[in-house]
Every structure is written in structure tokens, then in C-alpha cells.
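COMPLEX REQUEST
Ligand: adenosine-5'-diphosphate
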Amino acid sequence: MSDKIIEVKNLSKSFGDFEAVKDVSFTVYKGDVFGFLGPNGAGKSTTIRCMLSLIKADRGTINIFGQSLHEHRHDILARTGSIIEKPDFYKYLSALTNLEIFSRISGKPSTKKEIYAMLDFVGLSGREKDKVGGFSHGMKQRLGIAQTLLHNPDLIILDEPTTGLDPQGIIDIRNLILQLRSEKNKTVLLSSHNLSEIEIISNRMVIINKGRSIVEGSVSELLNSEELIVTLEVDNAISAQNITTKHFPKAQIASTEGQVLHLTISKTDVANLNKTLIENGVSVSSIESKRKLEDYFIKIINN
Ligand code: ADP
Ligand code: MG
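STATUS: Structure written out below.
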């Protein structure tokens, strides 16, 4: 189907005896900011390197723009931009000169005007003639994005683009990714080890762990499950448990330990639970709720 931009099926890749990617499958649709989420070592970069033909997969298929990567590597890569490591620039040359050089090498040279427009798009206007050596990490990442945009790709693959950035740098990159979709109609695959990052900017995602894809779907559906995992700190956990079971028969008590009660309950009942406990003489000193997927992801990470 034409709206499938990436289709990865049953991808596997080993390094010696070590299987870094095992049977990974996912689909990215046109206009997605697709979150490729997994803890460090999950196999994200290895998958991405296969998708960019930097390494060869052992098994599985990769189709991009409806074509087999194996058969149409050149055409596909011509329509794809990526940042997979820290972008490398000539630090004694200006941002403008760097982009001029890269655009000449790409075989599809951009005009000076186009390069200025690109630098403006990534928020580097006014800094065009400054040496890249004096740029912050965030500015270099943004320059990297400008570089990948030079040949006007339809698909942009970004491997952990916000790692190591300061808080403002992270916000700048996230805004830029959203603009890539909204203003430039790009499809973006964004890898990250940070669930909340994916939650903020992606519409669809896959979670991968230990080389396997675990769950794929719309971010809002995956995260907005009706059930929440609630942790209550109370003066009397046994009493709190009894009151909860009596008034909220659908709530499931997961555990009580000391003064802490863990349970799952419908999102709409959380405020009421707090009120009911207090009305029944239980003192609640803290109440914390997590979505199930968040809890699941934290468990994966800590495993
Ligand atoms: P992620 O990007 O999700 O952090 P990677 O794809 O980089 O994970 O790595 C997945 C696993 O494969 C890790 O255990 C890593 O050490 C291993 N790995 C990655 N590249 C190589 C390689 N070239 N040789 C051997 N092992 C590798
Ligand atoms: Mg990686």
C-alpha cells in the first residue's frame, strides 16, 4: 500500500554468536513521527543501520517507499535522510560553507538561497557564517538536521537525536521534528530510550527490548489505557485495602507492604478513591499513578 513508508518484517541480525536483533517487525506510515523506543542495547541502532544499508541483515525484509531495500537501495537512500551518530562537520569552517560542501558532495547541489532557508528553518539564522567549532552540541544537531534536509528526503531517520543535549537543546530538536512533519510533510522515524519523549512527539511507536519488537501501535492508545497503576501511602494499609475492595470492587490490589498499597484502578476512580479513603478515616500521605505501559517500560528498562 502506498501509505506505508517503511515495512520491516522479521528482521534478524547477529554479531558473531550474539543475536542483536531477533525477528523485529514494524510499519511506519506516511506522515508518522514514529517512535522507535527501547532501552540502551535493545537493538535500535542495529535495526536502523540495516535500514540504511550500512550493515546487512541476516534474515527478514525491509521495504521502504513500497520497494525492497535489497533491490532498490540507491533510489531509497536518495529519498532518505538520517542522523545516526553525532553529525561530523569541518569545525574551522562556517555552517554555510559546511552545508555548501555537503550539498556539492551529495550530487544534488542546493543554491545559496536554499541553504540559507534551511539554516533558518533549523533556527541557525544569523549564525550562518560562524565557525561550527564554536557551536553548542544542540546547534550541531540542528545543523545536522539541516544537512539531512539538503537533498529534500521524504523520510528522515534520527537515532537518539536528543541524547546528551541540555534541556533547551532537547526542546529545540523536538520542535524541529514536529515542524518536519507539519511544515515539510516528512515522515520521521525517531529512536529513543525515553518513553516520555516518544509520548510527547510521536503518533505511533514500537517498543523493542533485547532485540525483539514487543508492542506496536498508536501512542495515545498504548498509553491512555483506562487502567492506572496507583501507589498509595497511607497510615493503615490493611484498612485502606478493605475500604478499597468494598467501595471499588473492580480495583485490583497488587500488594500491600507496610504503609504502601499498590493497586490498579480505572482512571476515572482515582480521585474518588482518595476521597473515600479519607472519609473512612484513612490518612493518605501520597498518591501516585502510572499508566500501565509506563510501568511496563520501566520494568523492561530495569530488567
Ligand atoms: P541500541 O541502539 O538500542 O542501544 P544497539 O543496536 O546499538 O542498541 O546494540 C544492540 C546490541 O548489539 C548491544 O548489545 C550491542 O553491544 C550489540 N552490538 C551492536 N553493534 C555491534 C557490533 N558491531 N558488534 C558486536 N556487537 C554489537
Ligand atoms: Mg543506539
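REMARKS: The chain has a mean pLDDT of 93. Residues 227-301 form a domain with the Alpha-Beta Plaits fold (CATH 3.30.70.100).
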